Structure formats: C-alpha cells, structure tokens
C-alpha cells in the first residue's frame, strides 16, 4: 500500500519525496527535494497524524464521544501543536537550533483526524553521526556548549524543552550540534488517551518524574545526564560496569536510585574537572544545579580551556586581537576618499580599513590617534579634520569596504557598557582635536580663523560635558561592582549546623542554602540585607519573624519545619517562589499580600480553605495536596495556573477549573470528584494531563 504522504505531493508547490528516513513514536520523517534551475535542494519532512491510528478514534467512541466531540478533541491537539510550531519559527536562525522552514495542516478524508506536515532543514541525527564518527572528550564538551547556547535561546522566549535526548539532537555539515523537536513530542505525549505520562525516563529530571513543578533547570539536568552517558561507556548513572547488554530490571534499578536522590558517581571517562561540571548539572535538588544555561556553558568553556592546555587542542577560536581598545586617529589623506568639504574637528567613523593604512605597532581593532597631513591635500579640505577609525580588520582586496553604521556606545570584551573606555576615549579625543588643529593649522595657514576657532571651542565644550557624564557613569559602575563583589553565595546544606552564628560572612549572603540541618533559631538572618534566595527547608524552625525585614527575598523555601504562622512573610512582596510544605499552618490570610508569587507549595499543612489566594493571578504552579480543603471555587480567578496539585483533600467540585485555559496538569487523587466533571474538564481542555486514580 502506497504511503499516504504521496497524496500531498507536491509539497509547498515544488517539493517531492526523495526517500524515507525513519519513523518515531509520533510520526514519519522523509527526505524531500526541490529542483530549480538545475540545482537540487534537500529538506526534511515530518508528518504527524492525529490521531495516529484508527484505534484511537475507536477509543474516543468507547470513552463516550460522538463524531463531533471526537473531532473537537483532536482539533484541540492540533491547535496546541500549532503553538509549538509557532515557537519553532521564533527560534529560526539560531546556529544551534534546527531550522523550521514551513508547515501545513491537512484534514483527513474521514473528517475527524488531521495530518500535520512540517518542513525543516535536513540534518544527520546525533546517534547516526557518532556511529560513523567516533567521538572524543572534546566533542562532548562542544556538544554541551552548543546545547547550552540552544537553551539560552529558549530562555529568551520562556520555553522549556523538557525532552533533551540524543533523538532530538542533530549535527550540521559544519559540525554544529542542533536541538530540535521543541515541545512536539511532549504535547503529543500528554494528549494520548488515558492521560498517562509516557516517554523515556532516561534523561528526565527528578522533579518532572515525580510530577512536581519544574523550570528550565530540568533541561540542564537532562543535558547533564546525556553528557554523562557519552562519557561513561554509553551507560547512564548506576548502570553496571560490565561488557554486556543491560537488562530491563537493571535499568529500572538504576532509575530508582537516581530518582531517590542517591549521589551519582563520577563518569568514568570524563576526568576530574569535566566530571565535576557534569555532576553539578545532574544534581538531585534544583538549587544545587546550574541556575541558567549561561552558567553551565561558562563552566564547560573553562573545562575546554583546561583540556586545551593538557592535550594541545581547544574548542574555542583563538583570541589574538585586542578588540575593544579605542584610541582616536586623525589622518587627512585624499587616498582615504574623505569628503572634501569636511570642517575642522569633524569626526568620521570608518571601518574595514586596509592594514597598509595602519602603523605597525597597532593591534587589530584598536583606534589610534594620528595627526598626519600630506603635501598633496586638496585645497578644499579644511585643516585639522578628525577621523575615528574603529574595529579595523584586514581586507582581502585593496578595495575599500562600505562604511557601516556604528553605535555611539562603547562596550568591553564582555559585551557590557564600559564607561572607563569612554572616559579614556574622550580624553584622547579632546587632546587630539586640539593638537591636530593647532599643529596642522600653524603649518599650513599660520593662523586659525575665528569661525573655525568657535567651532572647535564648541566641540571641546560638548566633549567636556560628555566627559563629566562618563566620569559619573564610571563612578556608579565602580560602586556597583564593589557592592556586587561583597555579595556571596553560601552553601551549608546537610552539615549538622545548629547555630547560624557559626557561618562566616552571613550578612553578605546573596544566596544561602542551609537546608537539611538542625537549626531552630534564625535571628541572625535579620542582618542579611542582600539576601535574595534562601533554602531553609528540612530544619526545626518554628519562629520565622526574623525574615520580616528581608524584603530583598525573591525565592524562599521553608518546607519541612514546624511553622504555624506565616505573618512574618506579608511584607516580602518581591517573592516569586515560596515553599511551605509539611508544616503546621492553618491560616494563610497573610499570604494575600504576596500577589507576585508564581510558584507556591502548601502541601501537607492543616488548611481548610484557600480564600487568601483569590488575587494570586500570577500563580503558575500551586500545590495544596494533603490538607483539608473542601472549596476551591476561588481557583476560577487563578487564570495563570499551569500546574495544580489537589491530592488528598475533601474536594467534590472542580467546576472552577473549567475556565483555566492555561492549565496543563492537574492532580486529583484522594478526592471524590464526579466523573462527569472530570470528563467535562477533558472536553474543555483536551490537552490537559489529569491524574485522578
């Protein structure tokens, strides 16, 4: 039987199937080609059928749907899939993300299902590439760096990939590693009938595995496990180090050990420095991992440098030039093609200068102050012209390149605004104008005219004002750097600490992890004026009043203590994440003021109502499981909710969830919810994952 993909030919006007590449859980992939003017172009075509089989349509009927409701259900899946395709289009152009090119959605002949066709750049899969190109340590470091760059792009548009694995990584003809399949597999997994979580657990972060709230750090964990596997004889953590096929039972045991928080051993082939970097990415607790892909990438780049020193090779381009240093150059020569009508003191920006125009001592990228007149200068050129030559690079020919636009800002090698460089440039510029005009003016005309003098004085006055402004910015920058240098990260987790007075430099802490100790008194925390992140979970704290003055806090974890009152938290309006699970809290009225919270965990307390949360419209993740809550009608106001845990309460009505369009996961076990309401929630939100048995 001929594959149904052929009935859609030609795709997008002039594309045809060349060959079949492979088939995954959610679709087939083909190599397609287009011939234009004798040139053949290739691309990859992924076709996803929703539903995948006729059996899924039958299952819809078995679940009480008719033809119309089944069609609406599957259309909802397609709509969600379209959102993910739109995200892919936003990421187009990144060198480390598979380039999306086009898509189309076709209604199946039966009028119920859909075929989604997506055209992407044609690349080799990572597994296939490594099969024919044995990898070295440096390749895995490069892989990690490239994936971090891809995740940095995701971060810019608030996307969590959540499915990082070799199947979703590809290699370009130029050796770049690219991340693909953004959310498509995940969306299709959670919309299968039965609403069960499927997919591989091999690279899954513990918080995702356990159904808890997660963020972009889950992607960093998955990337860490992926790198671990490649540097550990192709075996995941806790796999037996034997030269044989691992059994299913051994895989399950390895998974259980990892998900229980057991300390992961060093990957065998990584070496100490790289191994430590990978282990941090694979940390069980989210706050023990890298907090951003940028941080992970920087550590990998450091290891890449160490690798170069030890083995004589590097993954980074050499930095031979002193890019970023700026000095003023004043050169009047008709050969440069300057405007003949330029006036005294005018500043012109040129780029892409021929190196023959530069003095031998100049480093590429510097701008140097020269005052040079030639005897053959044309008469209309005004004396003392000032030309700023910046970011000079060697040309391949003698032709002068077009002059590009330049920014007025000066940036350091790190890419940040550097007022110090501006300060240096302004001083040199003022001196250059005075020197150039005076020397050249005297040599050529013997005098400086009044009009020229006024123009010069005006420019000098303007530059002096800019100099004062640059001084102020420089002083502000120095003060800010000093302030930042005083702030530190302190980690004293699980060290048997009883008294905070034993911790040095506590008052300068920006981030403090003192979880899993035996602390009862936290009065010393009141002096922490810079504190933004605090992990105080798993201690013996009852009184949290010292926290009342730490208004700089944005993330606070107080889980597993003996707290009964949350009144001290009412002024911490900067909080976005708050963990209060497994305490003795009955009343959360004071939390009503914390309307900026996006992540709130109240699991395992003594709550009977959640009325105080009625204005928390920014909440994305809420956990009130294991309480005594009956009424959740205020949930109708929580329009930003994505993840909701309601397990083991006394809830009998969930109609307030029907209008929550952003809800993707809801957990209802241990309640007595009418089946009709659960079915209604599924119909209204076909893409939601519901756990209720």
UniProtKB/TrEMBL annotation:
Query: Which residues are in the Protein kinase domain?
Result: 15-301
Which UniProt key words apply to this protein? ATP-binding, Coiled coil, Kinase, Leucine-rich repeat, Membrane, Nucleotide-binding, Repeat, Transferase, Transmembrane, Transmembrane helix
Question: Would the keyword Ligase turn up in this protein's UniProt record?
Answer: no
Q: Which residues form a coiled coil?
A: 453-484
User: Which Pfam families does the entry mention?
Assistant: LRR_4, Pkinase
> Transmembrane segments in this chain: where?
428-449
One GO cellular component term noted in the UniProt record for this chain: membrane
Q: Which GO terms describe its molecular function?
A: ATP binding; protein serine/threonine kinase activity
Binding locations of ATP: 46
The record ties this protein, via SUPFAM superfamilies, to:
L domain-like (SSF52058), Protein kinase-like (PK-like) (SSF56112)
Respond yes or no to whether keyword Transferase is given for this record. Answer: yes
Q: What is this protein called?
A: Protein kinase domain-containing protein
Source organism: Anaerosacchariphilus polymeriproducens
